[in-house]
Amino acid sequence: MRLSRVRAALRMLALTVPPIRRLLADRERLLAENRLLRDAGATPSSAPDSHVGRLCGVVDPTHYLDADWLALHHDLERYSIDKHCFQGSSGEIYRKGWEWTHCLFGLRRLGMLQPGHRALGVGAGRECVIFYLASCIASVTATDLYGEAAWSADRGREADPALVEESKRQCPPELDLSRIVFENQDGTALDYPPDSFDFAWSLSSIEHFGGHAAARKAVGEMARVVRPGGIVAIATEMLLLEEYSHPEYFTPSEIVSELVTPFANLALVDPIDFHTLPYEYLVDSITVPSGADRRRRHVVLNDGRFQWTSIMLFVRVLT
Description:
alpha/beta, Rossmann fold, 10-stranded mixed sheet, 11 helices, globular
């Protein structure tokens, strides 16, 4: 039996089980609502009953309880080859899936996903955010050290051109790929004039550019090429304890001192929430590298010396 027939049979079986049938119906409803919001250029509200308050902060599992956020999460899965990062496929909360979704959710709330807008991704690899954005805005420039074998083999596996092509094939057939340009660029020295883009994003990349100083330089470069009033969205690795010292990752205080306060032309869109992780996520961390394939609560990582997770910042470029 072909794989497609097996999948169809399993889906029909699932539809005979009432709880699963209800979950599938809810998922389809949320997907439809998200597409209506996207097509209308609407901005999700931050109503009192929303589970998404501040945009700036550490991974927050309660975001998966927010209908708008979860609808976007489900829709984004259609553009990704990394299905295990999505709750709809794995049933779990995975920090990369949170990063991708929260980046787009924040950009949409901040009014950046407009039909005429131009976006820049720094250290973007082949992440699904690139392709989703191409369904919403005029142009997407994705940058990384594409085609550089040494980088792809060491720390930039997602910049492998073969993986980029594989990601393209995963996208919905109606996606206009001509809106996307992939360019080889050093994130610490971008070859674009000032005010070239309406917004920029970089997700868990700047910490791999060569240390804190290089990460800081990359933030400055994104701020330089984004127009005044635009947004720079950044995810990076945050150490859980201030007593830690790491050449690439940041303690909570270093998040502010290295990535926010050095820039007079940048302002956080809201205060950073450092206290979003529930107790069970803190004590049930992923041991790397041995436990990297574990799906359960794939949010906090632990290598025996440090514990860290993802943090997301949204900063506005000032005039």
